[in-house]
């Protein structure tokens, strides 16, 4: 496959058309493309003031390694800035080491600095070229010398041993390192260099799996809870739950504190923006409250550099829609996009195949993300990576008026919350939360149904735009969120729910029944016990009514007569009475009047082939339940069914008026 040529008009028009279909967005009218000649200024248009962090739509970063101090060819990189049409650069400043002559005690200079002011030279060059500067920090580790001077500033385990990463010591977010040392560095950098803002890779400290038991943490947690930090990892323990929330709150305090420091020292537009992941599970493990952060952020800097095999390229577009749903569609979301081979292990000095890197960039752009090329080191023997971003960035510059300030037209909302990841997903969030989410998103994409992510606390805020809500195994719900879903359906909205949706409260405690059971038309037959694990098995779902008697094929005489027609939702499956499933279903009680369109076929051997026959061909265990008695149509699937894309729209047809060119379906109004 040849590399795309984004500068050709035909290719550009084709790509715009494809991207519009993929993201279901529209270009806002009367857009203005801003030059980046004075990045720290505010440009005024009628009725609004646009600060630099709303104007810079392309970024570049050369992540400095310590030897770069001796070999950084600033002249060449300035040419690369121009070739890639960027409006801002991310430049390493301080934290673990400083790339300028810092006067802050124990702020260790790069071992090769020798009095050079590399950050200052780069910052000055960028400002001369009209570029905004994000000073990059890395704040969670320090040298042995620092540890020896202030051991009480560092994180320790339950036995009092310091946490380490190679030869560096991990600092504690509740100690003077974050409260005093880092703010002093921020003020020093602002005083001497006046960067537009700050970003920080490691701003949130240790994660969920490495609790800190230092005196600062003990004192702080006891002041909030009156209890000691829990030693046991126990999601059912209220003290452990409180410890989780306390950690989230502390990271939000750090966000607010750092912004107070930078804006007091550098002015109201000198924003501190941390850095965040595109994965909710990763954010949860790092105690980063995405909804709380988005309510505070001027601009969202994302560190999600390449695709994974599990989620594919389309994950990057999903990140953009997901974040804009919280930030608003007028704020910018630059994302670090690796030009090197990212992964585990990552080959940071080797070029990533251009098509791979560009596809990741394109998907992000499609979801409303701003491109940001990223290299590790300022000198490379593999120089192929220098060409990768140029064509995409040039295309982006020519078409940015269509790529920012867009509003979604999707009327399907897929519901999420970070609390569901934490307190329902617990230690198995990938299987319980991430995979159902990605499976649902994949189904919608393949069915060409545009969607937007909707936070569970924002259902009523977004309800006027939505016709359908989807709860993909959305286990942990507050009473308020349950009530919001019920009001949505009462007002005529459609609902699709799967798995254990609404079966747990906000702390992950099992309810006696589905909180949305009256909408599902389904209820637990007795006390529910779940180990939060789903195992795969050789199982199937039986479609009703069975149609094989009227389909050409061998007969054995026991095929049931066809007396009724199938529900339109099963259109496309006329030649099969079963669908591969692979999971396990429990028997549940259903309300009178609901329609059961699929039932469960229990597991039977798949190998050797001689044993692959159904031991129990039929049960009454429901798989897919439709409740048309509700004011809005409701579909409930006990588990997330892999063929949902076909259930929603078997013909993969797209209709601009509804979503389906055929007869009424559960998603059509």
Briefly summarize what is shown:
The chain has 669 residues and is α/β, with parallel strands linked by helices. It is 30% helix and 16% strand.
Describe the fold and architecture.
This protein has 669 residues and is α/β, with parallel strands linked by helices. The protein contains 19 helices and 28 strands. The strands form 7 sheets. The chain has a 9-stranded mixed β-sheet with strand order 19-18-20-21-28-27-26-23-24, with helices on both faces. Helix 11 runs parallel beside helix 12 and helix 14 crosses helix 15. The longest helix has 29 residues. It is globular, with a radius of gyration of 27 Å. The N terminus and C terminus are likely disordered.
Tell me the radius of gyration.
27 Å
Indicate the percent of residues in helices. Answer: 25-40%
The outline comes out as globular
Order of the strands making up the biggest sheet: 19-18-20-21-28-27-26-23-24
Note the topology.
Elements: H1 9-23, E1 25-26, E2 43-45, E3 48-50, E4 59-63, H2 68-71, H3 74-83, E5 88-95, H4 118-128, E6 132-138, E7 141-142, H5 144-149, E8 164-165, E9 168-170, H6 176-193, E10 197-200, H7 215-225, H8 238-266, E11 271-272, H9 280-285, H10 290-294, E12 302-303, H11 314-327, E13 334-338, E14 340-341, E15 347-351, H12 354-366, E16 370-376, H13 390-399, E17 407-408, E18 412-416, H14 418-424, H15 429-446, E19 452-455, H16 459-462, E20 468-471, H17 479-490, E21 494-498, H18 517-520, E22 522-523, E23 540-543, E24 578-580, E25 589-590, E26 595-601, E27 622-627, E28 634-637, H19 644-648
Parallel strand pairs: 4-5, 4-16, 5-6, 6-10, 10-11, 12-13, 13-16, 18-19, 18-20, 20-21, 21-28
Antiparallel strand pairs: 1-17, 2-3, 7-9, 8-9, 14-15, 22-25, 23-24, 23-26, 26-27, 27-28
